[in-house]
Amino acid sequence: MHNINSSFINYLPISPLIGILLDVIAHIILSRINKKGAHVGTQFISIAIGLIVTLSFLIFLLWDAELSLLNNISYGILYCIIYLEFAFILFNIINANVSSLRVRMLKEYAIVGEKGLSDEVLLRKYSASEILAVRIERLTAGNQIYLNDNRYFARKGGVAMIAVFFNGLRFILLRNKR
Of 42, 74, 130, 153, which is most buried by a Cβ count within 10 Å? Predict the structure, then answer.
């Protein structure tokens, strides 16, 4: 066992940073492997990988530390929460980029530069039926919905639980059931 000193304490905050770095690397690799477009599942797997790395690094740092079990657990929880906050921010950045029509339209404007785009070009490119078809394909590929008797149904757990959470949050904050 070694005495806890300032250099040991300085390494603890690195654990969530290493975790988020591995989360990003895992996401890049998994998204290259997975060509189905199921990016949410890829994100959850990469988040789990980052969390495992964060926990492993914390266990390595805390294993021989002369701290009480309660202190070790507290440090572990604290830095795992910090990692999960980073992962949540990354998750939302990726999802905003993938699903936001505004972001995609801004990309289109940036690509054409000073030539600009007409309403006709944008409506052809982003028709409502095409946008709906792409979203349904993405949700089906991500195993978040399934088709039964020409109707789509949400699968239990995972993203459906997130939707329930945000619907509840919207109701609490905005008193809006929709």
Answer: 42
